[in-house]
Write a structure and sequence with these properties.
globular; 11 helices; 276 residues; single chain; 38% helix
């Protein structure tokens, strides 16, 4: 396994490779990330992973400085998974000048749900992902469904910009109690960790209510009130169309749906989703 720090080294290392499978990460790796590496191997060879905490996608009051950085542990995990190259640039390498050119997703997709509560988040995500794609030049890239909106935005960006790669979705990996794996789970206290699976349970209850024919707005309000009553601070619990993440309007033909949620438990903000 090679660890490279510069774009020049990366391109030299990958020269001649035309079946690269790429997994971008911000490090602090857990089993969910490692499952992405295994899926990547099914779709290409060699497997390349990046570790870069991207300042552009953090808001002014978010946790960029305290985001866990566990590089040595991450390297050991990726080596066990047979990753060929780890691209681990620093900020000066990725942004040698101020990143004045940005990639902005359409407002009707980038400014809803996560985008409403984290302004400019998806602009930062798209900008760094496009830059990483330019550096790695993969044939496929793997993104987890846990970040459902991010997956959709990245996939559409690739389609509209005619990027020569496939975006492969990976199912959410959960602990035995149902909590979706996340790097931010380590912020939870012991009591909060015991409570955290309630978010996944709330999504399962929403799915059951939707399948039973309930009115979506009423189901969403009930779910928000229930989790708020348990001490959470919910940003949204929303039933949306999988095709565009917009609400299904009255009179529209039925189509596949997903319920998405974001809520704070103490000081930790968790997100999750469940397809219906």
């Amino acid at each position: 396994m090679k660890i490279v720090k510069t774009i020049h080294e990366l391109r030299a290392q990958l020269s001649g490779q035309n079946r690269i499978a790429f997994v971008p990460t911000m490090g602090n790796l857990h089993e969910g990330h490692l499952s992405l590496m295994r899926l990547a191997r099914q779709h290409g060879d060699p497997v390349v992973a990046s570790i870069f905490v991207n300042r552009l996608q953090f808001g002014p009051n978010e946790d960029f400085d305290k985001y866990p950085r566990t590089f040595e542990d991450d390297v050991a995990k990726l080596e066990k998974e047979g990753v060929y190259v780890i691209f681990a640039p620093d900020e000066r390498e990725m942004y040698p000048q101020p990143q004045e050119y940005r990639v902005e997703p359409p407002h009707n997709l980038g400014d809803i749900l996560e985008g409403e509560f984290r302004p400019s988040f998806f602009k930062g995500v798209c900008t760094v992902v496009l830059k990483l794609f330019s550096c790695v030049q993969p044939r496929v890239a793997v993104f987890g469904k846990k970040d459902y909106q991010q997956l959709m935005i990245v996939r559409r960006m690739c389609h509209q910009l005619a990027l020569p790669m496939e975006i492969v979705p990976a199912e959410t990996v959960r602990d035995a109690d149902g909590l979706a794996l996340s790097s931010r789970n380590r912020y939870l206290s012991a009591d909060e960790r015991r409570e955290a699976p309630e978010l996944a349970k709330a999504l399962a209850q929403v799915r059951e209510a939707v399948l039973a024919g309930g009115r979506h707005a009423d189901i969403e309000q009930a779910a928000m009130a229930a989790i708020k009553g348990r001490g959470w601070q919910p940003d949204y619990i929303a039933v949306r169309k999988r095709s565009d993440l917009l609400a299904l309007t009255e009179g529209q033909a039925a189509e596949p749906l997903v319920v998405l949620a974001a809520a704070k438990l103490g000081s930790t903000r968790l997100i999750d989703n469940l397809e219906i």
